[in-house]
Amino acid sequence: MKKLNLVLSMAAALSLAACGGGSDSSSDSGAVGGDNSGGNDGGDTTAATTVSGKVIDGYIQGATVFLDVNGNGKQEPNEPSAESGENGEYTLELEDADKACLPHAALVVDVPVGAVDEDLGEVGKAYVMTIPPLQGEQFEEVNITPLTTILWSEIKSEIIPERGNGNPHLACEEFQGNSDLIADLQSKMDFAISQVVSHYNLSEQDIFADYIESGNVENYELAQLIVKGLQKGLEEARAIEEENPDVSANVSYRKTEDGWVRIEYVFTPQSEGAAGEWSSSAETRSVTNAVSSDLEQIGEQLDFYNRSSYFKTIDADRIEVATYEESCNDAQTLNYTVGYQQTENTEYEVLNNMDTCGGLSTKSVFVMNWLDKAEGLGEVAQYMVPYNTETSEFGKFDYMKDFVERRDELNLDSILVDLGALDASYDDTLDANAMAEDYSNVSLKKTVMEGDLKVEYQRQFDNEGGWNYKKTTYQEDGTYTEECKGSADAEWGACE
What we know:
The protein is of the alpha+beta class and 496 residues long.
């Protein structure tokens, strides 16, 4: 069995390989590497980075492997590709423009009708396999299999709802210089691995291994069942898109703690309205159903998620209202950005949540003063408003609700005046006792660059009394360190 070749910082290593740094040797062997043997002949002397491995269900010949630069799971003309050959082997060459995406983009395999499975013969139903961008590990062979595909499916199930009604696909360019997003993806990767290990009774090494070469019959049989789900999911998603040409659909079958499930996502983008008018509604819909162990019978609904949103521009500002519902939770948001297209702007957001199972309501109000929103630099304040169960009202800002239903009648001037009275300054001295009358919790954050590293300072108050302080330093490879203290004048130390 191929063993994992663990690298402490794959992102850094690949960046060096992509830039031609880190070595002056004539070649670099391994699955991820480069050939620097070309001389200076007046042309481009930077050779392509190569990624090598196998496409495996059985070994698949005639499949297309590509780097999914824009994250939509479909090969675009500008995305580098290669065809798998004997034993499923492929070698993908990446030119300069794509090298920086190697740590941030998934590798996708289109297995078309007519490709050859060396165990089962000609493929009769098309399907797609994927391996996630691997932010902490490098392998002797980058094998793309049904097992790596379910790992990416687990990750996407966390990503898609978080992205609201925006583009549900993670494009490589979003990661450039974004240490928060890199760290978040790594966190989702770690969680997804734990889920796959638990639900499928696999080791982490099993997920990425060549189970044919190792003779692992159980994993081979599991892969056959997963491929059946991949084929069914692709057919069903295409049927949804053919019936509704404006939507983007994804259907997956995978195993959870509740057994096998079918998860259907449908995303409908919004179209912008005329100046000063609301857009059409963007919709994200997801439903999860139980499914039989042979994947043939769809059973009861286990979970659902629906979100819709509208936006409009007012001069240089932008307002978006949204509502979503899911199992045991309904929520609504209003977001107003002053200077929407500007690097430096101010953003206000109100989030109302209702636990429909437990009846608990919460309201959070955010004030964000961005120095560079794209880089996450600036100050962010969050004020949590307590809910009075006797009056069924919030102690403050109770009129800020039902944003979608009331979008044509919202008094934006009044809302902005009330929200603008809240302080977002991390350095301002706020009276904790006075705030306790109106807010159950206040969190102030300031994110700055210190040298080449992004550092986030946070101080948080709750109505139990007192402030707590935390400092988070993000390293260039996406990892981070945390320090804490109990008062403004204390020294930073280990967090409890």
